[in-house]
Design a protein that fits this description.
Blueprint lengths: L2 H5 L14 H19 L4 H16 L2 E6 L5 H13 L3 E9 L5 E9 L10 H22 L25
Antiparallel strand pairs: 1-3, 2-3
Length: about 170
């Protein structure tokens, strides 16, 4: 596992992508602060994950995000993919949410209308959302005593698929 790639994830004070508008930048910072406060206050995990997805969707625009957990029903996750295809959405980004320890915490799937992949300015936003989700899930797992599902060293999780998204069919 490439430690350098993930070490920046755990430094939430790292540099944010350059934004054209001070208002957009301030919104991003305030929303992230609200999410971190909610995580600290032990808000319900579904509420936190929905908040992370909503903030990410709003910031990138014209995308729909979903975070699933390893214990989620596979048929429900497949139904989400089927629904996305039904509405003509393409995979925009699909990535694992992995703890610093290598534990698989969940996955982030994003869909959009045009066939495209994340831009250079969108990738850091996605990475920060993954970091927030990882913190929220770990905090939840620690408080509920859930076990670990470590990702084997031989199967690294890619943060963003380098291939062009494919159409669901």
């Amino acid at each position: 596992m490439n430690e350098d790639r993930y070490s920046s994830c755990w430094n939430l004070e790292g540099q944010l992508p350059h934004r054209n508008s001070d208002d957009e930048f301030q919104y991003l910072l305030s929303r992230e602060q609200q999410l971190l406060q909610s995580i600290s206050a032990r808000a319900p995990l579904p509420e936190l994950l929905n908040g992370i997805c909503a903030a990410l969707d709003c910031q990138i625009g014209n995308v729909v995000s979903n975070i699933s957990l390893p214990q989620d029903d596979a048929s429900e996750i497949a139904a989400i993919s089927d629904d996305a295809a039904l509405f003509g959405l393409y995979v925009f980004c699909s990535t694992g949410i992995v703890a610093e320890s290598g534990e698989l915490l969940g996955s982030l799937d994003m869909y959009c209308c045009p066939l495209r992949r994340p831009s250079a300015s969108e990738s850091p936003l996605i990475e920060r959302a993954i970091c927030l989700a990882a913190i929220a899930i770990q905090r939840h797992n620690e408080s509920s005593g859930q076990g670990s599902s470590r990702v084997p060293e031989s199967s690294p999780v890619q943060p963003i698929s380098p291939d062009l998204p494919t159409l669901f069919n």
